[in-house]
Each structure stands twice: as C-alpha cells, then as structure tokens.
Amino acid sequence: MTAAVSAPPAPRPSTARRVLPLVLAAALVLTAIAYPLSSGPARDAVSWTIVVLGSLLSVVHAGAARGLRTAIGLLVLVTVTAVAFEAVGLATGFPYGSYRYSGALGPTLLGVPFLVPLAWLMMAWPSWVLAERLARPVAGPTRRRVVRIATAAGVFAGWDVVLDPQMVQAGYWTWSDPSPGLPGIATVPLTNLAGWLLAGLVLMALLDLTVARTQAGRAPRTGDAAPLIALAWMTLGGALAHAGWLGLPGSAAWGAALALPVLLAVVRRHRGGRW
C-alpha cells in the first residue's frame, strides 16, 4: 500500500519582502508631496531624497519580486547605460540635443552627476514592471517581448516629459536650443523626447534580457503595487504639482494625457489581479 504524496504549497512571500517596497513607495510619495511646498536648498534636498528613495525602491522591489541576481543586474545595467548615454549626450549632443548640467547636482562621472543614473534607476524598473503587466495578454513569446520592450520604452520616455521641465525650472540643467518643443513646453526640445525613446528602447531590451536570465523562479515572488504606486504618483502627482504649484501647465497637461490611458488599460486588463 502506498501513500499519496502531495506537492508542498508554494511558500508565501515573507512580510519584509511584501512590506518594505510599500514602505519605500509611501516614503517616496510623501517626499514628492513636499517638493512643490519647499524652496531653495530645502527643495534641492527633497529632490535628492526623492531620487534616492525611488532608486532604492526599484532595487529592493526587483530583489523581492525576482531575486537578488535580478536586483544586482538591474543596478549594474541601468548605471552603465545611463552614464554611457549621458556622457555621449553631453559630449556630442546626440541623441538628446545640446545641454549641460549645473553644479547643483554635485559630483560627476564623465561629466554625468551621480544623481542622474539614480534617476534612471528610479524610472526604469517601474516602467518595465508596468509594461510586463500590460503585455501579458499578447499571444506568443516573441510578440509579447516586443510589446513589452516598446511599451516600457514609451512609459520611460513619457515619464521624462513630466520630469524634464521641472528639472529645468529648478536650474539642474539647461538646453542650448530648446525649440521646437512639445506644445506647452518651451524649455525642452523635441530631440530630448526622441533621445529618451531611443535610450529607452536600448535599455528596456537589455533589461528584459537581464530579467529573463537572472530571475529566481518563473513568477514574481511578491506583488507589483510598490513600483506602480511610485510610477502613478510621479506622473499624475507630478502633473498636479506642475498645474497647481510650479506654474508648468503644459507639462501638467502632457503628464495627464500620457498617464490616463495607461491607467485605464491597467484597470481594464488586470482588474482583480494581484498588485
């Protein structure tokens, strides 16, 4: 007589794995709320804190959801890609257009302030996570991967549409020739958007490959609420701040226009899913 042996249930994610990304997301949101309410050196400190919290959230969530190797791969890949694109951009004007950073952003590597790769890290992982969710219904792994990379690059570039005018207003960088720009945004040229789309496609293709080769297990080990909260607040919350406090109605309108269709797609396709 033999006894039936059932497979053990999949382990539930630990409390720390589930809670820590959410704590970082909440801290990020609260700090971002303080940005339009501050000024001078205090606003600079808030900017640094936002970027540090956002980049830390990305790495922590990648590790919690996909494993330590993915978190390390994300950190190394985004840092190297960001410094490479930004250093070339500063030296040649390609692919963003001609621009320069101010001294307010602190120490640099190859002319690129340390804060900049952290900002890329803050933006890149939530963009990929959202795209991964939106691409799930697409049939076929190759088509799904193409849609995932293109969507992530679009979200990545769209985030910058809101961020860049705010950073120019703060004096962190300036453009030699900001025209032509998007309607309502007079301080940032269209070449910047084209450059972010190109950089996003390269980065997201490499990130997609990195996740596929490094993730532990076949499915995320915790939900995606934390990076998606960060993404939603930094776009829609940023648009609100631009309209109500920062005097940037053009970027506010673009932020809302770019974010709302994505939010509607998330609600429609993933209602009732684990977040």
TrEMBL record:
<dbReference type="Pfam" id="PF04240">
    <property type="entry name" value="Caroten_synth"/>
</dbReference>
<feature type="transmembrane region" description="Helical">
    <location>
        <begin position="251"/>
        <end position="267"/>
    </location>
</feature>
<feature type="transmembrane region" description="Helical">
    <location>
        <begin position="146"/>
        <end position="162"/>
    </location>
</feature>
<feature type="transmembrane region" description="Helical">
    <location>
        <begin position="228"/>
        <end position="245"/>
    </location>
</feature>
<feature type="transmembrane region" description="Helical">
    <location>
        <begin position="104"/>
        <end position="125"/>
    </location>
</feature>
<keyword id="KW-1133">Transmembrane helix</keyword>
<keyword id="KW-0472">Membrane</keyword>
<feature type="transmembrane region" description="Helical">
    <location>
        <begin position="182"/>
        <end position="207"/>
    </location>
</feature>
<feature type="transmembrane region" description="Helical">
    <location>
        <begin position="45"/>
        <end position="64"/>
    </location>
</feature>
<dbReference type="InterPro" id="IPR007354">
    <property type="entry name" value="CruF-like"/>
</dbReference>
<keyword id="KW-0812">Transmembrane</keyword>
<protein>
    <submittedName>
        <fullName>Carotenoid biosynthesis protein</fullName>
    </submittedName>
</protein>
<feature type="transmembrane region" description="Helical">
    <location>
        <begin position="71"/>
        <end position="92"/>
    </location>
</feature>
